[in-house]
Design goal:
25 residues, mainly alpha, 88% helix
Length: 25
Amino acid sequence: MSQMFIVNLIKKAIEFFKGLFGNKK
């Protein structure tokens, strides 16, 4: 796996969790 692929996954995961916590608050 390339680093770009991992970085993209992490960014998407962060945005996903931000959306979850944002909706809960």
